[in-house]
Amino acid sequence: MKPIRNLILAGLMAGGMATAAQAQVLSFSTPPQGSVWNTMASVISGEARASADMRLVVQPYGGNAQMMQAVNDALAEFSLNDVNDVITAVSGTGDYATAMPNLRVLARVNPFPVGLYVREDSGLTAVSDLAGRSVPAGWDAFPIARSHISAILAAGGLGWSDVEQVPVPELIRGSDDMASGRVDSAFFAVGGPKVAEVDASVGGVRFLSVDANDETLRRIRDVRPAFYFSEVVPAPVRVGVPETMMFVTWDNVLVAGAHVPDDQVQALLAVLFDNREAIGAAYPPLLALNIDTAFRGYPGVDYHPGAIAFFEGRGLAMASVQ
Hints:
40% of the residues lie in helices and 21% in strands. By secondary structure, the chain is α/β, with parallel strands linked by helices. β1, α2 and β2 form a beta-alpha-beta unit. α2 packs across α9 and α5 packs antiparallel against α8.
């Protein structure tokens, strides 16, 4: 009878551990409220709570460095970021003075087009029109924006010396400063809720167009090698996109800490891809979720073993590095 008793005890212990894991509060680190990543994390977390009973909460931080540090140091479990920034953080280069070796990629989420936008009544329509005009700079609380704006300016044939640099600390403040007239342009991702807010407050905004060709592609990849151009068509959620336009783009990825158990990683990925329609209904840009293109290898950063098991369990092999 002892073996049977041991099996029963083992089952009870496993059940207790599963209940404890399910009850554990998991944290999703993001930039401040109003940013695209904060919105995406809020939608994903809401669906995880509703459909998988995961106790997932969103914790805003001041910027990328803080939210990556939180995941690396096991103060948060998940985050969303530009894959270039994750690679930089892992290596401890660029804006990261200290390497963060505990960051792991879980999945490619979607392409992430970004741009500089202006008040519609400014008369500006292209990035090249910003020559001699003011552009947000500094970004002490959101340093990732420096390289992004550098690439956008390069795609418009400009450099930092061609524009007036106005210091702003982070995304939301940058858009508020543009709305108030302190700076001529602001930086944001297409589809960002803050862009819609500014649009309503100033009577209209528009993103500035860039020249997408082989030469400007070389220029933006000199800034970050994973940048590329993507075509964006007008849609109600894409405020400030009046016609089909090309944007500087990168791959947005879901990130976890090495400390996160495999089962929690797999549970979140199941929510993400099995409930894509519900997630996309809450935030349309997430309709770009596609499990067939989500398992993509990147140089300088590893996938979480739980994510590898998830995708291989769905019959998917890692795509080769671009």
